Amino acid sequence: MRNKHNNLKRIKHRIFEELSATKKIAQKTSWRKAFSTLIAKVDIQIMNHNSYEESQKITKRLMKKHEVMMEYIEKDFSNFIKDYDFDNVKLIDSDKKLKDKIWICWWQGVENAPEIVRSCINSIKKYIKQHEIIILTEENYHEYVKFPDWIEEKKKKGIISRTHYSDLLRLEILANYGGIWLDSTFFCNSPKIEEYFNYPLWSIKRPDYGHCSVACGYFANYSLGCNYENRKIFAVIRDFLLQYWSENNEIIDYLLTDYLIVLAQRHDKAIAEAFEAIPNSNPECDELFKILQEPYEQQLWEKLSKDTILFKLTWKQSFPKEKDGKKTFYGMLVDGKL
């Protein structure tokens, strides 16, 4: 009964949040444009339950949403960007012993993580031999970053959710130390992951893969990295996100960080060129998730993993370990046999 009450409360909160965001967008654009963003958000929720199938009509609505959101964000940040000094971005003199690490966050600690998260982290550990992996938790993240007191206060009050605080943490870590940030539900199947440390800037890149995010496959903020010398890129995006939260107590869009990454590219040529130079990678990144519940097929796995070494999964769904008397892809994964 309590779970049902909490779910209802969460749904009501989300509805209020989205209506409030729509109103704010309308104030800087128009009600017609703002309503188009709300419709596209509904499309995304439906796609989330429909294997992200994207018709031409949905693509058109999603692209319209991105156009309107960028218009809103450009107007919202106009004064801040006018005064922002892209040539003198604040970087801390960080401990260079912490550069070139892989950073993963699971707030409750790996020992308390779901089975699929533990399996994903173990897969990263299996193939990373030349670089240290640091797991960030509620207990240790303060050892690596320090946010303004007002940010911590907003986190404490629940104004900034743990999810959106993770966006700030990701950017602050990369702005301080560089290295590679990976979501905790990435499954790795090759030592080639080490090669990503050779790139000045890195992200999974699959141009025009999908259009739910304004990134449209050209980057994915759950997989970001840079060398120590290019920390400035993430410091700029971090500064944009801090600016947003300094003036807001509600998120305007769940994928706000993606819009801010595009905003940074629009206003700094060097950042735009760095993102443009990221090579394409991991074309089948989202395909393993779609078949986790199906019986394992060696041929299919070889096809998926031929050019993809990182697969994005989820801990928010349950998957069987067997189906029709056969091991599923999930069963093979958690048994360490993929």
List the helices and strands and how they pair.
Layout: H1 2-28, H2 31-48, H3 56-76, H4 78-83, E1 102-105, H5 115-127, E2 133-136, H6 149-157, H7 162-177, E3 179-182, E4 186-188, E5 201-203, E6 223-226, H8 231-247, H9 256-267, H10 269-276, H11 287-291, H12 298-305, E7 310-312, E8 322-323, E9 326-327, H13 329-334
Parallel strand pairs: 1-2, 1-3
Antiparallel strand pairs: 3-6, 4-7, 5-6, 8-9
The structural class is alpha/beta
The biggest sheet amounts to: 5 strands, mixed
Q: Which whole number gives the mean pLDDT?
A: 94
Q: Poorly predicted ranges (pLDDT <50, ≥5 residues)? A: 1-5
Our measurement of the CA-to-CA distance between the termini, rounded to an integer number of angstroms, reads 39 Å
Radius of gyration from CA coordinates: 20 Å
SSE order, as H and E?
A: HHHHEHEHHEEEEHHHHHEEEH
Q: What percent of residues are in strands?
A: 5-15%
Counting DSSP E segments of at least 2 residues, the number of strands comes to: 9
Side by side, the strands of the main sheet go: 2-1-3-6-5
User: Percent helix among the residues?
Assistant: 40-55%
Question: Helix segment count?
Answer: 13
Shape: globular
Oligomer: single chain
Give a verbal description of the structure.
- This protein is of the alpha/beta class and 338 residues long.
- It is 49% helix and 9% strand.
- The chain has helices spanning 2-28, 31-48, 56-76, 78-83, 115-127, 149-157, 162-177, 231-247, 256-267, 269-276, 287-291, 298-305, 329-334, and strands at 102-105, 133-136, 179-182, 186-188, 201-203, 223-226, 310-312, 322-323, 326-327.
- The protein has a five-stranded mixed sheet, with helices on both faces. Strands 4-7 form a two-stranded antiparallel sheet. Strands 8-9 form a two-stranded antiparallel sheet.
- β1 (102-105), α5 and β2 form a beta-alpha-beta unit.
- α1 runs antiparallel to α2 (31-48), α3 (56-76) crosses α9 and α7 runs antiparallel to α8 (231-247).
- The longest helix has 27 residues, at 2-28.
- The radius of gyration is 20 Å and the shape is globular.
- Mean pLDDT is 94; it is low at 1-5.
